[in-house]
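Annotators were shown the component list below and the corresponding predicted structure, then asked to write short factual statements about the assembly.
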Amino acid sequence: MTQQPIRVMLVDDHAVVRMGFRLLLDGTRDISVVAEAESGEEAILRHPEVAPDVIVMDISMPGMGGLAATERIRAQAPNARILVLSAHEDVSYAKRVLELGALGYLTKRSAAEELIEAIREVARGRTYLEPEIDRALMNLSTQANAALRM
Amino acid sequence: MSLRFRLGLIISLSIVVFSLVMAKIVVDEARHAIHEEMEAGTKITRQLLSSVLSSGSFLVQNEDPSDAMRSFLHGLGRVRSTEIRLIRDDGTLSYASPPPLPERDGRRAVPAWFVTLVTPELPVAEFDVPGGRVVLAPDPANALFDEWTDLKKLIRLAVGFLVLVNVAAFWLLGRALRPIGKILSGLSEMEHGRLDTRLPRFHLPEFDSIGRTFNRMAEALEDGHVENARLARVAMQSSDAILIHDLDGTVTFWNPAAERLFGYRAEEIVGRSAELLDPPADEPGEAGSAPGTGDKCNVDNLETRRRARDGRIVDIALSTAALVDPASGEVLGGIQGMRDITERKRAEATQRELTENRHFTQRMQTRLEEERRTIARELHDELGQFVTAIKTIGTAIANRTADSDPEVHRNAGTIVQIATRIYDGVHGIIRQLRPSTLDHLGLPAAVEDLVKEWSRRNPETTCALEMEGEVGGLGEAVNIAIYRLIQECLTNVTRHSGATRVDVAIRRDALGLEVEVSDDGKGLADRDEGGRLRLGVVGMRERVQALGGRFQLGPGPGSGFRVAASIPIPAVPPTGIDSGARGVEGGG
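Structure shown to annotators:
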């Protein structure tokens, strides 16, 4: 099966983190890191030129930060597939990130184990959430719906 | 001498004088009449005798003319008030007319003074008759008697009239002057302080007018007295110290409140200078109590100081006014009202200290939060990222060596496990230090996450969150205070309570913001372990009070424990159908 590898751009202000992710992803055959950016601004700048299949975006960076960068890139390229990485395990963040148009939300806690699978899911255009956050988010939206119905 | 007696005397004297004048006139009349009478009598007698003598008709034949004369005279008898005597040539009395009747003899029945007063001087007439001479002597006895009788009648009448008039005058005056007694006794009662004395109506208009004037005066006096008494009570019972001084600054009045405030008794300070109360020169107290300050300018509630008898400096609020004579407008001195504000000053100082303390606490909390945020950021940005990197690299190695080198694979797996634990530890610390949700998503989201995270870690306890009203946009200080409060409460529940349910509520309405955390676990008494709870409570209380709020701690609705804080940040009245109840249920 000769499939084009998933072209990934890593956006994180920590070089050592990018290095770790590159190492991890290079170990797969279907994912290839084609670009790295160390800030949201740089990611926005390079996105049209690189045109990655998936952007792995850290949420907390100096400067504009991951949330704003996600919003801007989505505004420029509505089809861009973005997986947001965050140190926050709070549901509120996940919710917010998805509202801004990202396809996936992954905590750094689970990143090592889940990143590869998450990139694959997002590359297919599917939403990716960790099971725990997924469950909590479902809960939240059920309540919201219930509240709306009242 | 009473008026009545004097009036009686005047009337009596008038009547007496009138009577005397009358008497004089009467006496003159009487004398005149007597004179006339006697003159007329003498004249008639003489004419009669002349005519008889010249005619000689009395002569009887053969008879001595002297005897004939005697017979004639005898037959004639007494001619009015003239005594007739016939004296013979030899000088012997031949005949004398009979004397007047004794009872009509004026000389005997009439007082001698009257006789002398009215008896006229009349010459004795003599003329010769044959055989002797006839002597005609006027005798006023009868006339005197008549006049005296008349006069006596007049005198009786005058005396009777005098008595009658006097009695009538006395009675009338007594009757007319009776109100004077009443007026006098009224005045006397008034003099003895019975100001409710009133006079009745009188018949005489003059007295009635006096009576009404008296009553009006009494009323005015009574009113004035009541008003005075009331003012005196006010001054004596006033809780403010009152001092009145004259133009020289000498104290003339000093009320009990002033005694209590300054320690001087009234008798000690009245008559002395008000400067006695001035604080020492080095003491900051601007308005002296010396005269002048109060004379010209009135001050109102000036905060100043005075020295009490024991040297203590008293903070007072001073109000002064000039003491003005209402009639002349002349300034007589000054009135000083002084209120003790030492307590208030002390309370103000305490309040200031408290406010300062709270500001200090607030600043400290802010600073603490800043520090925590910095440390959290450092941990997250540096340590956290490195741990993530270690984990990722470890995983990468493990993935690559899964088939080729089981030994390395296993070791890499261990590194990943350890790194995961470090990661959890670091992020646990970061969350404790600073809830990043608060910065990025606001208080409601942060509290929701806090409750959710707590529920995840305490699955045996149900935690319900209720939010009502606009809870977002409260500002950093309030946000962090509420967050920490709930965080601390939840930590306490984990540590101490053994509760099965916790209720967290944040409500905001027109009255303010209220935060309440209650559980069904152990009560307060069983919970205090080594003062840890106490310390936490102190921290919470300080945070709430620093925001001007009220902190309450007590038993829960059923059993358990309840913490409540109300912070005075009222909600803006809602403009739309926004801000409904929001709730998140977690745990179980």
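Statements collected:
1. The two ends of chain B are 121 Å apart (CA to CA).
2. The CA atoms of residues 496 and 529 of chain B lie 8 Å apart.
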